[in-house]
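Re-run with default settings, no changes from the original entry. Doing this only to confirm the output is reproducible before filing.
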Amino acid sequence: EDNYGTLISPLPDNAVFLTYYRNNIIHLFALPGLVMTAIFAHGKLEKNNILQLIAALYPLLQRELFLHLSQDEALAYTAQLIDAFKQTGMLQQKGRYLALPEADSEQFHSSWLLSRCMQETLQRYAVVLTILKRDKSISRNALERESKTVAERLSKLYGMHSPEFYDKNVLSSFISALRDNHWLDAGEDGSLKYSEEASALRKDIMALVWPEIVQHLQQDILQADREAGADEKV
């Protein structure tokens, strides 16, 4: 407590436990969170671009979260969310684009908070897809193992305290969703192959992830692999 008021924060030992409460309700914020994440990442977007993004990500999110809506219902709900955000001032319509409210408004802060709620999920997706981009073809076990290692490192570097960020079962579920939704090609030996579809998905996801995480993945995974390859040639 100081001259400006009282600050409330969880005890360090309780911070991890609180993430379980967050996980019990995050399905409620998944779609509104993705809408805001996209707008914050791109500055402005057309409504159709947002719906296309939701259409790509929703089947993947369904494997991880309690999302009972069908694909068509989810898209209709997203359109309703966008209308509600405009009515409350959390988004503004500027011509054919949807944009953020003024930065000094109360609505901007609410929009910003919503944009954060899906970051760890998107970052986990980015980890898996970046490893696939690096290796091009990899066994499922190796992909799960390497993804867990990289996610654990990110967790330590950036203070992500939620255990599911690097949980092997959560990573495995995402990999299954990628395969079942035809984002990956399968080799005759059972390996998973990076495809043009996976490359397009990775591009969309990397655009949504915070820049410092993108830079870390580019440097620690892709650049390190190129440097290792150069050393082998020498």
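The beta strands are 44-46, 92-94, 97-99, 137-138, 185-186, 192-193. Residues 92 and 99 are 5 Å apart (CA to CA).
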